[in-house]
Design a protein that fits this description.
Elements lengths: L5 H4 L14 H21 L4 E6 L1 H4 L3 H9 L4 H16 L7 E6 L18 H7 L4 E5 L19 E7 L9 H11 L8 E5 L14 H18 L2
Parallel strand pairs: 1-2, 2-3, 3-4, 4-5
Helix pairs in contact: 2-5, 7-8
């Protein structure tokens, strides 16, 4: 599911009709209510796992994006707080049998990316304040920074490292995958780590510059790496 923050971030206050919502908080309340109803319907239909796809929080790791937010008259730090509150309100009352994860997306259209910057700016709040069970973090390039922000992850949560790129057909090295998981385990025990592609192979209608065979090779590598690392 797209995160509720996605419905606000791109235009900010300018995208919320002031006649309908003179107080922006009322917009957030209505938005959270819509998400709660949708999640309840999904659970009633049998869903036991929901993944929130969040672009805004990942974007706000980028100093240039934070400057752009300030330029339009908003405080990026307060925006992060508002988005965390909004996300938690959207997920409120989720049943205990439902597992919820969040993917932090940095853009995935035709091999392009939207933002860069390590997770340090949001890590403590992201990992300790957002009411989800785990995180999918894009770590396929140096644009995502190092693993040090993982030190803020509480013991009750898992993190999936997006080490395999969906943006390029070049196949990653098994040795590099093992090394990077080992590096991350310096901050989070390996039994609370997993690996995945950094994003979907076709998370937008434009897809990415990979063939079906490229995708199969990457998924095969992913399975073999997981079997080798967590044997």
């Amino acid at each position: 599911m797209p995160s509720p923050a996605t419905m606000h971030f791109w235009l900010g206050r300018a995208g919320v009709d002031r006649r309908a919502y003179p107080d922006e908080e009322l917009f957030f309340q209505d938005l959270a209510e819509i998400y709660r109803a949708e999640i309840a319907d999904l659970v009633a239909a049998g869903a036991r796992y929901i993944q929130i796809d969040d672009v805004p929080l990942a974007m706000l790791c980028d100093p240039n994006v934070r400057d752009a937010v300030r330029h339009r008259g908003e405080d990026p730090d307060l925006l992060i707080q508002s988005y965390i509150k909004l996300t938690n309100a959207a997920l409120a009352n989720a049943p205990a049998q439902l597992t919820i994860a969040m993917h932090l997306c940095r853009g995935n259209y035709k091999g392009k990316w939207l933002s860069e910057g390590g997770y340090g700016f949001i890590a403590e709040r992201l990992f300790n304040k957002v009411s989800v069970d785990g995180y999918f973090l894009e770590y396929d390039t140096a644009r995502a920074g190092d693993f040090a922000p993982l030190a803020f992850l509480p013991k009750s949560k898992l993190v999936v490292l997006g080490l395999i790129s969906t943006k390029t057909p070049e196949l990653e090295s098994m040795i590099d995958l093992e090394r990077r998981v080992n590096d991350a385990s310096g901050y989070v025990p390996v039994d609370r780590l997993a690996i995945s592609p950094q994003c979907g192979f076709a998370s937008t209608v434009g897809g990415n510059p990979l063939s079906l065979d490229d995708e199969k090779r990457k998924l095969d590598l992913l399975v073999r790496a997981a079997e080798r690392i967590w044997r």
